[in-house]
Amino acid sequence: MESYGYKFLRINKFNIGNDPISTLNDRIGELVKNGVEKNNVINHIHNTIEGLQNGDMKECPKCKEIRDYKDFRDPDLITGYGRFCCHCKGYTLVEKPAHDNIKTDNAVVSDKTCPRCGSKMILRKGRYGKFYGCSKFPYCRGTRQA
């Protein structure tokens, strides 16, 4: 238990001395006077658990690391956040200045419906040009020509 950061007062017949009362009083006084030192490992674990519960942190399914939610930011995606962290994707996020008021909304939702699931379609760009893709991608891979 001591390796988890909890302090114990170990007492047995070999270390109690001739006067058990004064020995106990001195040893308890030393523990209280020094205070309980906080263990950095335990604090890190508590902060990680709180971050996961609050939604400030998330586990990357690829590298199995728990990272800040901002590490999952991907401006190329419609939602703005991806499943994998930027470390696994191998890129660094470059934030745009706050004074840029230019709206870059690449997702154009159309009135067309998906032939597979009936959801709305989004105008997208691919290597063969523009096309309509299902808004529930990757769960539905329905497409139409633009």
Summary?
This protein has 146 residues and is an alpha+beta fold. It contains three helices and six strands. The radius of gyration is 29 Å and the shape is rod-shaped.
Supply database-style keywords.
6 strands; 146 residues; two-stranded antiparallel sheet; alpha+beta
Overview of the structural elements:
With 146 residues, the chain is an alpha+beta fold. The protein has three domains: 2-34, no CATH class; 40-89, no CATH class; 108-145, no CATH class. Helices cover 23% and strands 19% of the residues. The chain has a four-stranded antiparallel sheet with strand order 3-4-5-6, with no helix packed on it. A hairpin with a 6-residue loop joins β1 and β2 (66-68). The mean pLDDT is 79.
Show the helix and strand layout.
Elements: H1 20-34, H2 40-54, E1 57-59, E2 66-68, H3 86-89, E3 108-113, E4 120-126, E5 129-134, E6 143-145
Antiparallel strand pairs: 1-2, 3-4, 4-5, 5-6
Distance between the termini: 65 Å
Poorly predicted runs are none
Count of helical segments?
3
State which percent range the strand residues make up: 15-25%
- The value of Rg in angstroms is 29 Å
